[in-house]
Design goal:
The complex is a heterodimer of chains A (about 400) and B (about 350). Helices cover about 40% and strands about 10% of the residues of chain A. With about 400 residues, chain A is an alpha/beta fold. In chain A, strands 2-9-10-6-5-4 form a six-stranded mixed β-sheet, sandwiched between helices. Chain B has helices at about 5-20, 35-45, 70-75, 85-100, 120-125, 130, 160-165, 180-190, 210-215, 240-255, 275-285, 300-310, 335-340, 345-355; strands at about 30, 50-55, 80, 105, 140-145, 170-175, 195-200, 205-210, 225-230, 235-240, 260-265, 270, 285-290, 320-325. In chain B, helix 12 (about 300-310) links the parallel strand 13 and strand 14 (about 320-325). Classes of the chains: A alpha/beta (about 400), B alpha/beta (about 350).
Chain lengths: ~400, ~350
Amino acid sequence: MEQYSAWSGARSTASLMWTDFWELSMRALAPFMTSVRRNGSATEATFETRPYKLHKLDDPPSGTTVCTRDDALVMYRQMQMIRRLESAASNLYKEKAIRGFCHLYSGQEAICVGIKGAMRPQDSVITAYRDHGWAYTMGCSVTSIMAELTGRTQGIVRGKGGSMHMYTKNFYGGNGIVGAQVPVGAGIALANKYLENGGINICLYGDGAANQGQVFEAYNMAKLMDLPSVFICENNGYGMGTSVDRASASTNYYTRGDYVPGIWIDGMDVLSVREAIKYCIDYCTSGKGPLVLEVATYRYHGHSMSDPGTSYRTRDEIQEVRQTRDPIMLFKESIVAADLVTAEELKKIDSEVRKEVDEAVKIAKSDKEIAVQELAADVYLEPLETTIRGTTPFDPYTHQRISKAINLH
Amino acid sequence: MAISATRVAQKLSGALSRSFTTSRVAAANQLTVRDALNSALDEEMERDETVFLLGEEVAQYDGAYKVSRGLWKKYGDKRVVDTPITESGFAGMAVGAALGGLRPVCEFMTFNFSMQAIDHVINSASKTFYMSAGLLHVPIVFRGPNGSAAGVGAQHSQCFGAWYSHCPGLKVVSPYSSEDSKGLLKAAIRDSDPVVVLENELLYGSSFEVSDEVLSKDFVLPIGKAKIEREGQHITLVAHSRAVMLALEAAKTLAGEGVECEVINLRSLRPLDEAAIVQSVIKTRNLVTVEQGWPQSGIGSEICARIVESPAFHYLESPVVRVTGVDVPMPYAKSLEIACIPQSHDVIKAVKKVLKIIK
């Protein structure tokens, strides 16, 4: 079967329909073999994962995975929440309530939700600037995310960071410089190994960042030092307006680690993503060193809010993915067919999610910005001077310490 | 010829008094800058298990300039890490290690190579505490030789004092003596913010007399405080790193001509000890800054600006003059290289011009 790709357009419409019909049928049939009761009251179900592709690995992640009803509800809610909050962010940006950069994750939800589903408390994540979904799955409230986007006091970092700089425990951002988060992530893994705390670091970057030199420098040192690093390329087909074929001499991002083994994963299937990360945790915590993953995904919006996203790809392509490969739609169909949940329950979640996001938007719009004096706060953990120069020498600010660092050691 | 008994007695008593001297004031401890840095690293690594050193050749080679000599043998692979020649990668990893719970000391073989990693020093390290509104701190030290060496050519001779001290979120120190080097490197390692330590290769072999206190394991100097190396009442000379030696040389010559210079060793570039400079200028009423780096937007420029904006301006009897490196990339030919770096006669000329001793 030819390589599956949502964006290459290389496959005919007919074969696409056949494959999807076949897949959907298999999904619908498989759980009947193991589910216990009907009417959304199965406590768990077994699903097939999407085929993985391997680079210098003999054994793939498991071909089947068990999903409990509780997990299904959590993951569905998380994905739906991200979809809605990104949609709200899009509207806020158009209303000019959000300024500067705003990079939306819609379409890629299965990645952060799937990965978080496998993570343990000692594991950490670092990513680039398409980070709102990550902030949510790693524990930031929707209100704090929306308020950070509008730059208000209740924002995750009091409005001082904005869209690209969201952080929480074990989530190291939110990084604005393409590729810079990759060696930083490897360094966090180095700390995990040094401190023997059993954690792994999951470090995400895009297909655009995948060509950065420092990424290869990080691969090299992570491999030399056997670091518990999982480097993950979220391949959504485009680095801003440049398709992968125009940017990369090799688009097999999961092989780009060369001497670092790799796995290709269908990023539209949340359970496949989750299963792959379970595998990675086993691998990395047994001292085998790093892995490079490529998760095939798609973003519905443009690169950022200043990019309509249609000058370098067709609307048909975007529609095709929305209608046939949407991760939330696919998951919904699977879990309903498996009797883990009912369609009504999911509808209820949808309206709860909508309500939560709407409330968050209200606060994000009405909350105040921090006092101007706070611009001089938290420049240093241990400030050596009491004042900070203002725009003129006449009115210096006083350096304040406000927040408590969450990574004190 | 017979030696008188008195002479013998004098010689003997002299010898005895020298070997039995316990005066701390005249402490005869000699310490090179290299050893001062080495002992700072050793002591801090012993004190705190999360402190570790990484960089090119720091472990098995004992350090490109032998600053980390003996440390790998003592602490092993985990704590003294040889990196590949990939500054961007290993500086980024050092930042990650600091975020994740360690206190890395990241060596750049020279600060010229830090340009390959400067995004990590500034964007990944110095800005993170602010961008995270105080949630994530980065207790990292970036250290290595800065400025011109001898005959190494343009790409290996730049002074980064102005560039790094420009950025809020960083602390920047530039030690001159062994006391400075030990005290400031220890302070940098203990500091919980990103600190850039600008050493000087030509100073590594220089030996300085140090007190017993300097040799103790808890000798730490405050970052942001300058030292008055020599007191004087006619003019203030402000310098950092190797230029302090230059200022002291010029001061010595000028003293022979009746001009008493007050020499301030900045020790830190950020924070800059403005108060010390202002206080000195109010006393002496004249100021010359001395540095090896380029003139435009340099350390001297910053000092001038601060003095002009301070109460000291009204005490100045003459405009401030900066003595700096020549505004060109560093040439290789020996006589040209010497001409590109300020020498004693340049400082003396500047002082005499400012004091109107010469036109």
